[in-house]
Amino acid sequence: MLRSFTLHRPETAEEACARLADLGEDAAVYAGGTELLLLMKLGLLRPRHLVDVKRIGGFAEIGLTPEHGGRLRLGAAVTHRAVEHSALVRARCPLVSSVARHVANVRVRNVGTVGGNLAFADPHSDLATLFLTLDATVELLSPRGRRELSLGEFIRGPWETSRAPDELLGSIALTPWAADTAAAYVKFGVHERPTLAVAAALRLDGAAGAGRHGADRIVEARVAVGCVGPRPVRVAEAEAQLRNASLADLEDAARAASESAAARVDPADDLYGSADYKREMVAVFVRRALRIAAARARGAEPAARFPHAVVA
């Protein structure tokens, strides 16, 4: 049962920040409310005031940042469903659209927001894992002005971020991959929340299979692992193992990368499995994600599907 609270509906970010500063610890930011309201019903959170940010201009919009080339900008109150169906997202970051389609269930996607998902810092977030490979940054607004942080700096640990009490998460910016990049997102779990997730992207130095020397060489790789430790991580060691490898010899590089990823994560024993089990699963699924990305680089779509796994 929900404890009574006062709902505030500011029209501007400045007004919302001022309200948060005045109310202090008695207030919580409200957007989709999929996580917040559940915790309030369970009595785990008891804010006396909710500051609704859905009406603030720009917070529910998807667009491009003004700099040359333009990064993809997602307002904090953009829903997962809006990301899933956005033509701009499909054109600039198609894997983001595909992953959004597999977030929770359609009821959650209709109301749950991108900003709320990241600000809540749930360790089992699909978007946070994928966004690390897109050099995501978050915009934080406060009475002191605006600041920008990388997503890795913003998410500090389970349910903990760098957001100050009087700050709002205004938007998220993503850097689209180069056109010659092939990518995959694979998540595994037997519960509603995934046990682990892997995002992998491979950029080649030319068209794979075109018959030119070196055309299938990997010049850039991105690997992120999430849902298995206290926060998602980008695995630089795994990326280094893949750089300069060819698709023809991918297995050796993928094995080395998967071992680096398994060593990098920090899992704990819980209802999702033991720490040793999770490390082994990370190694297995990093290899699978890389194989899928490599197949897509060759112009093929792997037919293999795995029990309790989702491939995007």
In short:
The chain contains 12 helices and 15 strands. With 312 residues, it is α+β, with helices and mostly antiparallel strands. It folds into 3 domains: 6-52, Uridine Diphospho-n-acetylenolpyruvylglucosamine Reductase, domain 2 (2-Layer Sandwich), CATH 3.30.43; 62-174, Uridine Diphospho-n-acetylenolpyruvylglucosamine Reductase, domain 3; 181-311, 2-Layer Sandwich (Enolase-like, domain 1), CATH 3.30.390.50.
Low-confidence spans: 207-213
- CATH first level of the largest domain: Alpha Beta
What's the tally of helices? Answer: 12
Q: Strand fraction band?
A: 15-25%
By CATH, the architecture of the largest domain is named: 2-Layer Sandwich
Enter the CATH topology name of the largest domain: Enolase-like, domain 1
Helix residue percentage: 25-40%
- N-to-C span: 37 Å
Morphology: globular
The main sheet comes to:
5 strands, antiparallel
User: How are the strands of the largest sheet arranged?
Assistant: 4-5-10-6-7
Work out the number of β strands. 15
Broad structural category: alpha+beta
User: SSE order in H/E notation?
Assistant: EHEHEEEHHHHHHEEHEEEEEEEHHHE
